[in-house]
Amino acid sequence: MASAILQLRDISLSFKGIKVLSDLSFDVARGEICALIGPNGAGKSSLLNIVTGVYQADAGEVVFDGRRFERITSLAAARRGIGRTFQHNALFDRLTVLDNVLAGLSRHSRTNLLEHAFGLPRERHEEREFRRRAEETIEILDLTAYRDAVVSTLPYGVQKHVDLARALVGRPALLLLDEPMAGMNHDEKRRMARRIADVNRSLGTTVVLIEHDIGVVMDLSDHVVVLDYGRKVGDGDPDEVRRNPDVIAAYLGAVHEGVA
Amino acid sequence: MSSSAVSEAPAEFAASSATFLHAKPLAAIFTGALIVAFFGLVPLLGNDYWLGAILIPFLIMSLAGLGLNITMGYAGQASLGTGAFMAVGAYATYNVLLRLPELPLPVSLLAGGLIAGLVGVIVGLPSLRIKGFYLVATTLAAQFFLEWMFNQYGWFSNYSTSTSISAPRLVLFGQDLNTPVGRYLLTLTTVSVVALVAWKLVRSQTGRSWMAIRDMDTAAAIVGIPVAQGKLSAFFIGALICGLAGALWAFAYLGTVDARSFNLDRSFQVMFIVIIGGLGSLIGNVLGAAFITLLPILIDHVADRLFGGAIDAGQLENFQKVLFGALIIWFLIKEPHGLAALLGRLLRRLQAIASR
After folding, report:
1. B15 to chain A: which residues are within 8 Å by CB?
2. For residues A134 and A84, what is the distance between their CA atoms, to the nearest angstrom?
3. Domains of chain B: total
4. Superfamily for the A1-81+172-260 domain
5. How many CB atoms lie within 10 A of CB B143?
6. Chain segment A191-202, per-residue pLDDT in tens
7. Is any Cβ of chain B less than 8 angstroms from the Cβ of A53?
């Protein structure tokens, strides 16, 4: 097994006394696609929120790229190369697709307010470079037709792609995808799954994704972690997890249904 | 991820820049015509009344609108401290002119603006923790506090016995600007330069960060936008511009520095300019300022011509206020995105007709 890019050690989280995550530990290997599955309320999104600094864990530690996070803030996570998409639309609604994708490059910006105000050479150079990278990502995700459209006017499926483009454009080392295929039909799901596999293969991006469609998960992932009521009930390659009786119990047969 | 998809990108880019080039000469001609008209023709043709009582306040209110629009329209941080920031700009510029008379006028103005900007950062600090109406309430506190402070402590007005103090002479390059044309040109130049810088800013990484924070601040932080810094920079730039507007209001329009002209009413007036003109639009500030400052004058003239002498003057004035208020309400129901959206639709329709 390759070295771990993300290590979670005994993570616990509770809201007003209700345990959301209890002593959760697992590793994500560099370059793999890791799926996080489990019933609604199992704590999957909460875990992503801890890794991106939206929530602070009550206990436990997060080690990313060999370095332990003292205190995770969203900004620190982004700067160290963690990108993410959201379960519910969290795009910059009134900006165009291009501007949303450009905003995804913010962590690479090295220019200051004064340079922006007067359009100094360094700023012009950075802006040109950002535009080139944004256009490239827009092209890759087939969003060229929507490039100048305001995102709130776009269909849901396209918005999901814009969210992915915004997370991907900064070339994160670790990409967290929160239900990237929610609300999609079978064909759209297949297309999105192929995209994720492409990104993983050609850019070497490590992917952690939350997904409910077990069929898609088993095809796409190298590694599956199963959560139930904030506890880990399964951790291994898809075949191992499929045979795990605890997982079957947690899903109440949903595994068979999904596979069929 | 096919390589052919990547190689098509430059072609697409070239196509879009070609249409841009096509539009450029037209825009340049239009801008050139505007510059000639406002810098050349207006001072030649306009009389003192038009310059001093209509165009100067209209331009200054556009500038104040621009300041608030940065904070509220672009960065989404609502503020009722505009009047206070204008007061800080006016008093700070007054004190710089008074205590450092050797500085040239533009430097004194900028210094006043920078001081207003720093006060804006302090007033903006609560925005790191609170949002919406709660934030508005804290800016309201700043409005009342600063207004009180300038009246309470004589140092700010150089221990003048009256509450309003006359402004020092406006001199630039040995040229006395204290004529209607001079004050108009000073105002117009300041507004033009600030608008140009603001135009650069809102299209830059800073502007994108402001709008990202406005639209979804958690997501903004997660893509690596320094949210706290973005909010404070929006307060800084917004208050700086409002400060410049306040200094011009005192020196180029009223000729006196008076805290009462920067009260809460002023803050509301600027907020109406921004909302009617269009949140997150630069041209909207000019349109909103025209609506707020010019329409009452128009109503005044029309009412005078129609009912002058027939109705009691006090009654007529009340009627005008009611009419103005009703117009604001009617307009916001018809066009909640402001005059800028209206203008945009009009231009698109004209373009469609022209290309047919």
Report:
1. none
2. 17
3. 1
4. P-loop containing nucleotide triphosphate hydrolases (3.40.50.300)
5. 24
6. 999 999 999 999
7. yes
